[in-house]
Each structure stands twice: as C-alpha cells, then as structure tokens.
Amino acid sequence: MAHQPSSPDVASLWQETAVPRVAYPALARDARHDVAIIGGGYTGLVTARALARRGLSPIVLDANRIGWGASGRNGGVVSGKFRLSLGDIASAYGVETARRMHGLAQQAVEHVGELIAAYDIPGAAFSARGSLRCAHNPRALARLRAEAEWLGAMLGDPSYRILSAGDVAAETGSRGFVGGMLNVHGGIIHPLNYARGIAAGIVRDGIALHEDTPVLRMRREGAGVCLETPGGVVRAGQVVLASNAWSDLTPATRAIQRRVIPFRSAMIATEPLQGAAAGLLSGGRSYTETRRMMRWFRKAGDRLIYGGRGAFGRDDKPSAFAALQRAMVRQFPELSGVRVTHRWSGLVAMTLDSLPHVGRFDDRVVYAAGYNGTGVALASYIGTHVAALVAGDTPDLGPLTGAPWRPIPLYGVREPAVRAVAGWYQFLDAIGR
C-alpha cells in the first residue's frame, strides 16, 4: 500500500542506479513478536534473519525506508578491518584478541558473499578484489610496511603486500603516492541494492518488516517490552537497538545516541568517464589514502566516486562538496573538466575507542552500533552475533563485547570537541606528520 515517506531520500548515485524499490507497509495494527528490532539497516535485517533461523519471531521497524540511512548512503566499500588497527588492538588487549578480531573481520567479508548468494542479489555487484591503501608520504609508507610485516609475523597472514610508487601509479593513475599496501580481503558493492536485497529476502522468509514506522516510546510491560508507533503497538519479549548514527530520530533509541559521535561523510560521483580518465583505478577495488582526514575513491561502473570525512552538522554544505572536488582534481588532474553529477552524504557512528559495541543494556534490550566507517561487512555479520545474544548465548567478540558500553562524558560538548580534533588532524596532515 502507498504511504507518505517520513523523510526524503538523498539524491545519490546509488538511488539513481538501484533496482526498483519495494515499499513495505507502515505498521497499521497492534502486533506481538518474540523480538522487536528498531532499525532496518544491515544489522537489523541480518539480526532478523538469524533470529528466524533460530525459530524466533522477529519484527523489523524502520523510521524511514530500507536504505534511507547509512546502509544506502555509504561508499560501498566492503572492508575486512576495524578503524583501530590490529597492532593497536594487540597492544591494548593482547595478541590473541587481535587474532580473534582478525578472524572476525575476514568472516565478515565472507558473510557478505554468503548473503548475496543466499538471497540471489545480483544487483549488489559485489567485486571481491580487495583494497589498496595509498601512502601519501614516506613516513606513512614505512608505517604500512611495518604493519604488513607485523600481520605476517604475528597473525600468520601473508596476504598483505607492499607496492612501489610505480605500481600504485600504474593502477590508480595518480602519481601523488609514494607506495601502498594491498589487502586482498574485501572489495566493493552497490550498498543500496545489497540492503534492498536482504530486505526482500527476509520478507520472502516470512519476517515482518515495516517502513515509515518510528518507535515513539518504549517501556517495560510485564515480562516484555511495549513499543508505541503511530500505527500500532508492538509487544515483544526483547528489543534490539540497531539505529547506529541515526539514533536521534526518536526517543526510543536515545541510549545509542548518547554513546556515538555522528560524523558526516560526504561523497561525489562523476559523469561516465571517457578517454584517459576512463583508465583511472584500473584494479577495480577500493582505494584509501593514509592521511588522518582520509579521502577514499573507487569506480562504480564507468564513474569515479570520491569521498572523505570532515563535514560537520546535520545538513549538506556546498563548501564540503567543493572541497572534495578540488581534492579529487588535485589527485587526478584528468578529471579537471569532468562534470560531477551526484553529491550526497551520510553519518558515520564514531565511538571513543574506535570499535563497534555489542551487548545488553538490561535483560530486555540488546544493542549493536558504532562501526566507525567500516560497517558494510561488520554491520551485516554482527547481526548474527546479536541474534545469538538475544537467544541467550554469550558470543565472545573480544573488546566489542568485553565491557559495558558507557555514555560519552560531557555529551553536550561533543561537536566542538570533534571539530577541534579534526582541525588538529588537518594540521598534522598539512605538515606531513
């Protein structure tokens, strides 16, 4: 049935090139389920699938539409890594924990392919060609070389390879890098088609899914939880909060809101490339640079997507997109006369320790959030562990589940604090540190 969208979709390349959208009805009656999931992104959808496979009855409630948030706006980079490096994880938590996290990251990438195969999502256009981190100066290249050596020696993973400046230039088309590190795990994907494909699959499995259904209030009731929406009340034994960076949309997810720092990530996409520009990024993988205020780039068909962090506030700003375009042309002079056809952004949920968090707030409320910009693979795979937690298991995800997730101290001043840190990072990048 037709219904009025809660918020408009962003005018992204993914929206323009996505498979036709299937509209799922807003909740229009009271319902009772074993588990209510707030948020229809990758985590919420996969959690519902995993719960149903355990014989439980889940319902997914999204305040907007499938793919409206980060699951449909991100850059489509499938990465087998965390924002915190494995070496830093080993220093903080021990080598065995780093080994466990390394395995978790690789399993997350493999799980993406398994989901695509299980639900037959050819529109996801998953290309598992890995990623290339491009060093912007010799100091950064030395760090990449040390990281590759550590991964081989300590974790037994020889798949990371250091490339010369010539190799990086031959593949990327840019001579602005002094070398790089190739990681064969991971790849690129059409993120909105991937999200829509999972949603269609779980609905075919018989799972209840409702769009345009914000949870206005949530309260304990008897042995369960009562969720009030504009169209009906959902009663469930347990609730999963899977709203991530968009947790300020309703009061029901305020507990997540106070534990993450939303950071805007902006992206631009070019018109179809021709001539010499068409040969850029010939490896067909994802590419990132090593500056602290990271830029990343990839191809989507015959277009180039260029993205980066550092935009602030809830609304898009022309200045942020203009800065991205200038950076893109500096990196790839061949694009100086190429038209930018799409400009969009989304929110990344950052955490104080740079790691996702999975756990319980109490006996009825489970959470998973804080992917720190590496969420396509992790957010999907963690859904299987969220379901295990709901079902009474005790999954061991190292520091992701190792301690209670505390609210951010002095939450009210988080935005100026983030601005100050970002400004410091930009200064360090400018002086080559």
UniProtKB/TrEMBL annotation:
Keywords: Oxidoreductase. GO terms for molecular function: oxidoreductase activity. Residues 34-389 form the FAD dependent oxidoreductase domain. InterPro entries: FAD-dep_OxRdtase, FAD/NAD-bd_sf. One of its GO terms (cellular component) is cytoplasm. This is FAD-binding oxidoreductase. The keyword DNA-binding does not apply. Pfam families: DAO.
